[in-house]
Amino acid sequence: MDANRSELASLIDRCAKTDGLHATAIPRLSVLRSTRPTEPLHAVYEPAVCIIAQGSKQAILGEAVYVYDRNKYLVISVDVPVVGQVIEASEAEPYLCLKLDLDVATLGTLMLDAGPGPASVEPAPALGLSKVTPELTDAAVRLLRLLETPQDISVLAPLCEREILFRLLQGDQAAKLREIALGDTRLRQVSRAIDFIKRNYRESFHVEDLANEARMSSSALHSHFKAVTAMSPLQYQKQIRLQEARRLMLLGLCDAATASHSVGYTSPSQFSREYRRLFGLPPQRDIARLREFPDGFVAA
């Protein structure tokens, strides 16, 4: 186990020469590096598994704090706004992590081959932690090794990815993963509501319309949406709006007033209040701070 962990860290270290998130030649696989603890970062996490080789991180969803390191992996089941922060990292021992986006089609075919398994009766929070096993680490190492033999990726990477998902389906997050792949579960209904909000976040909507989109009652939508995301649909929309406005300003595409209008706000003062409540500073000061430390933010 220790040898595999060391090799996993070494492979990620060779792939990620600078701080930040780095895509790889393997579909859906990214690696992350940070040489110092980071500021809290608001970001939308997408369905994925994150396996840390070195260092540690915390993710906050609502009131729940998820701390993970090389002994625990993180599973994300739906797109959800999270506050993430690297809490253990240094120049000598940087934070090193791999992120594999979850492919619904691969999960579905794997479930058919693996046979029946546990299923949740009610939706669970979008984030979940489980213990890293030697078998999971070994599969992750073999997947990363393929980056050093690019000619093998097209044939062998899908096999390694499939094995990683199989190992996850044997762990504590099996029910969550099965809900991602199954077509008619509460989690998939919540996911449909999330997709609708993300597509239409600039526009006002009625909860009844959102419930129809999710194919569930308004009361059930509110209950299950909050169980998964730790927020109401309107709170979710607000976070998506504010994060998009922040992104636009950080890229220098517009000022605060234009950004607020472009994401659906009609009142600049309301935008400023809600922005400060979420990010801790008014828009202009927050963007100045982000630009001062551009490499201090690692998203997953």
UniProtKB/TrEMBL annotation:
SMART domains: HTH_ARAC (SM00342). It comes from Methyloceanibacter methanicus. This is AraC family transcriptional regulator. Signal peptide: none annotated. Keywords: Transcription, Transcription regulation. It comes from the Bacteria. Residues 191-289 form the HTH araC/xylS-type domain. InterPro entries: Homeodomain-like_sf, HTH_AraC, Tscrpt_reg_HTH_AraC_N. GO terms for molecular function: DNA-binding transcription factor activity; sequence-specific DNA binding.
